[in-house]
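Protein folding task:
====================
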Amino acid sequence: MKTVELFAGAGGLGVGVASAGFETVAVIERDPHCCSTIRANQSRDFDPVTHWPLFEGDIKEFDFRALGDSVDLVSGGPPCQPFSLGGKHRGHRDDRDMFPQAIRAVRELRPRAFLFENVKGLTRRAFANYFEYIRLQLMYPDVHRQPRQDWTDHLARLEQHHTLGRNRGLHYNVLTRVLNAADFGVPQRRERVFFVGFRDDLSVDWSFPEPTHSLGALLWSQHQSGEYWERHRIRRPPRAPTSRGSSIVWEAELRLEPWRTVRDVLFDLPDPELDPYASFLYENHRFQPGARSYPGHTGSPLDEPAKTIKAGDHGVPGGENMLRRPNGSVRYFSVRESARLQTFADSFVLRGSWTESMRQLGNAVPVDLARHLGTAIRDHLAAGAPPS
């Protein structure tokens, strides 16, 4: 099955989707730092990036029709700054809103399915009408905006098209859901909204995958069974058991794997602040000084999933992307540690300064979450109608 990756960034979504069994036939990214990261991994034969056909340039200049009509999946994360809580909240008035280009790709490629990701801020009440506008455009990409037509007038036209049941032409069945990456084995609390659509001629019966991991299972392993501490071969802290509601909730959560913590994924990495050889042993694992804790920016506790790895509007936000040790001291995560928290393999390298590399990671989709969604989409496509 063939896929096209839009707004590839450092490649988290693309790596995950390709690892789910898709053949990547085009990768589009305009940022030179991200392209440098992709090319660095191609030169190192990092699979599946090695053979990516990379287009470095403005997506507005890309001719999707040149790819033919055999694309099965279009995926990507349109730039999220217009809708991010950490951005300027300009939404559709922001020139960085690339959803129109994502919709153009769907219209011209007519893929069997698509997968798009964006920040949870897009679901805020302030953007409710624009969120519906995006959803309806993805459902009916052929009903495109006319020259000099205001987006609200286009929305009204799409609403009329939808309520009248005019499903002739290109039509997708679209579902949206906010997912927490921690619920799928990513060691990070990271909530993002996903748009998944299947072409309606495929008769695909789709629902988002159910979580595989839970907070309740983590708390049980820490405060009841003690398995978490035994696994890490450390003494169990003297903490009181935590109660989280009814036994029904507990029983449901205990059927899942525990949320993964910072300690779970960083346990074998040397501390870059304390070990002078850390950066020689692991690439991108250099100590970054200057971390400090203050109200609202206290870092990520070692025995919980990390807080959301952020890019920031002008670099890494002060006080964010930090590790908080059990003794209360803090330091910035190294690039390698942040890459692990985003579930990139250690053989995947980032190019650019610490701030630039962290920006790339903060904008990425966790690889494991992308693989999970990509696998579910692939399985549904395989069970549906044959490829076009």
Notes: The chain has 13 helices and twelve strands.
